[in-house]
Specification:
eight-stranded parallel β-sheet; 10 helices; TIM Barrel; alpha/beta
Amino acid sequence: MPSSTAAGIHLPRLDVPVRRIGGRDFDFAREVAVMAVINRTPDSFYDRGATFALDSAVAAAHRAVADGADWVDIGGAKFAPGPAVPVAEEIDRVVPVVAALQGSGAVISVDTFDPDVARASILAGAHVINDTTGVHDPRMAEVVADSDATLVITHSLARPRTPYPAPRYDDVVGEVVAFLTARVERALRHGVPADRLIVDPGHDLNKNTLHSLELTRRLGEISTLGLPTLVAVSNKDFIGETLDRDRDRRVEGTLAAAVFCILQGARIVRVHNVTAAVDAVRMTEAILGWREPAYLRHNLA
């Protein structure tokens, strides 16, 4: 059953709202985490390799934490079609960044669909594995189950790094819910407890703009699964196509989509533009009555 805030906004009840992740407690009944994106790839869709060099990636990660990011998500191989990245190379890309973030106070996430990369990342200190292929390989669940890490299960249809042209859905939201339900059950069967699972509907992953808009509009149907919902809407093509904006002009559209998703139950937002996103998220929390203002001075004696 959904619950209502004082503002009259209907939000879903989470089965286990309070999570301890990376040494921090998050109450997702009344808190939203901002996840910063750090890509150690030469061909990332947004920054086009700007943080591919190790020094650049580490500096960007520390800057994101200083700017208020709660989580940092490090990726060494993108989901989109392209040549496979050898496992050893992907490990060499992400593990040094994980190591450099120890003691930063941030939750450290690694964006990977390879169980061996996940294992190496967890051993290096990663707290979250963000699998954009939704546990397509059951070994991923086994690796996470054999640790204290949290697993993000994302909806997508294609095998890693392979094209999936012109995706079709009869009901994109219903099919995403069915997929996530099945993959959550797979993770549970392989030993990952429910209180270490997060779901992500996978905006733009094997979906066109109309699909992603529908997912955003009806995100409440995803968040009723009872698990914290992560949304990765940042600078995505569905925003660019909706607003006719190039990649470097999608911040405002990203913030609008992120806030709308929060009001539908999203509890982690994955973003590139950290400062703007932190302000939007914290303002939304304050409007919902979850956060006190930093100070009170206006019209006070």
